[in-house]
Amino acid sequence: MSDTMASQRFRTDDFSPGANHVVSRLQENGFDAYVVGGAVRDLLLGGKPKDFDVATNATPEQIQRCFRSARAVGRRFQIVHVRYGREIIEVTTFRRDHTDDQADSAGRSSQSGRLLRDNVYGSLEEDAQRRDLTINALYYDTSTHNLIDQLGGQADVAAGIIRIIGDPAERYREDPVRMLRVLRFAARLGFTIATATETAIAHHNHLLRDIPPARLFDEWLKLFMNGFSAPTCQLLRKHDLLIHLMGDVMDTAQANEHSTQLQNMAMTNTDQRVADDRPVTPAFLLAALLWPATETRAALLAEQGESAIQAMHQAGQQIVLEASQQMAIPKRFSLAMRDIWDLQPRLERRQPKKIKDLLAHRWFRAAFDLRLLREQTSHLGDGCSSFWTAQQEKYPDLVGSARGRQEDRGRRRQRPRRRQRNA
Ligand code: ATP
Ligand code: MG
Q1: Which of the following is catalytic: 97, 118, 132, 339?
Q2: According to a count of CB atoms within 10 Å of the terminal CB, is the N or C end of the chain lower?
Q3: Which atom of ligand 1 has the smallest separation from the CA of 171?
Q4: How many CA atoms lie within 13 A of 312 on its CB side?
């Protein structure tokens, strides 16, 4: 493979002060150092990188000797975080793919070929080979302004192509999360996926089932909270990865046109909020994506004789539990999701005595937004959301004003006060 030293020049201030500092300090100490990955890709595309990663031939110990503010982190790899002002630069040592090197004990793989540790150091050439995509394997020397492109990343950026480095099947077996990364970048950048990179997904999508639930949730956040959830989800559905990511609870929606429509509207709204720099919460989007499953389950429980409120409550509990088998939803989000669902039958009731309490609930707005989506997609024509719109206009200061979690589930019940002893 030819080592193309292209003369692509970015300006020094295209890079953050921290990135420039880390690269020059490492070089002053005799090491090679480059800005690598997403930042170079985004600069080529004319964008503004959100963070900077640096790759170097210095070992983590040597990196730490160069910077007082350096801290080693990372489970799968040893990464060094260097703090510069308020910035954190992620510095990694060049590594190589070691699956062909059975004798090496620092790199291990599971029986399916999945990499469990990836800490074998190597050269820049080897480091480029073990990265995921050609467009992510570009190295930029901020002092000489040389761009090193060994794998045709620049051409792929120019042509808008997402291409796995090496044999896609093998790379997906090593790390199935790469399939999600392929779709995420394709959706976010609006790129097309190279044929072999795309076709291999069909044979390997089931491998996501082996990924630890916590890592899958981290990936979920990157896939759904980055402003491109709608196009990303479309690709996930197309490649049958949605169910492998979020579990069988996502199955319910696929059969029903209204459900898919509700999910799509929730994602489009969330993407718009991200574009407008308005706050978004994973809890709302998760509540909307899992609503079809929860609604179906609640209907089933109601048929078995539970009250509407109890049925919804139990359904929420069950769906969260089932979803968590695949993807670990942190408790602070799953509790909020359940509140959002619990509020649905309560909003519907419109009980005069409960109006103020419900308006004040910290998840009222999210619950109301879900109710709106339900009305828009299922043609529920009972005027419930107009009722609550009117209430919000009547008591604007109350909406979401209760910070604590004042809803029932026994949480409101206070512990019996200790009786004062008469000494
Ligand atoms: P973003 O803009 O989303 O941060 P990024 O390309 O910087 O995009 P990161 O997840 O920050 O993505 O990863 C940094 C770099 O590490 C990538 O550019 C890629 O070269 C490499 N990388 C990340 N995850 C993997 C993986 N699973 N397999 C191989 N290489 C990876
Ligand atoms: Mg990055």
Answers
A1: 132
A2: C
A3: 28
A4: 17
Does domain 223-408 fall under CATH 1.10.3090.10? My reply is: yes
The residues near 382 (Cβ < 8 Å, ≥ 6 apart) are 348
What does the alpha-carbon distance between residue 314 and residue 346 come to, in Å, rounded to a whole number? 15
Continuous H helices in 257-383: 257-275, 282-289, 291-303, 308-326, 331-349, 355-360, 364-378
Question: 219 CA to middle of ligand 2, Å?
Answer: 13
Domain limits, the chain: 4-159, 223-408
Which entry of 14, 42, 53, 271 is annotated as an active-site residue?
A: 53
Known catalytic membership, residue 248? no
Active site residue 240: no
DSSP 8-state class, residue 176: T
Q: How many CB atoms lie within 10 A of CB 159?
A: 12
DSSP for 64-114 reads HHH-TTEEEE-SSS-EEEEEETTEEEEEEE-B---TT-TT-SSEEE-TTS-
Q: What is the pLDDT of residues 335-388, one digit of tens each?
A: 999 999 999 999 999 988 999 899 989 999 999 999 999 999 987 877 898 999
pLDDT in tens, 87-146: 999 999 999 876 554 444 445 556 665 655 556 889 999 999 999 999 999 999 999 999
Q: Is any ligand 1 atom within 6 A of the Cβ of residue 91?
A: no
Question: What is the whole-number distance in angstroms between the Cα of residue 132 and the centre of ligand 1?
Answer: 7
Same fold, 4-159 and 223-408: no
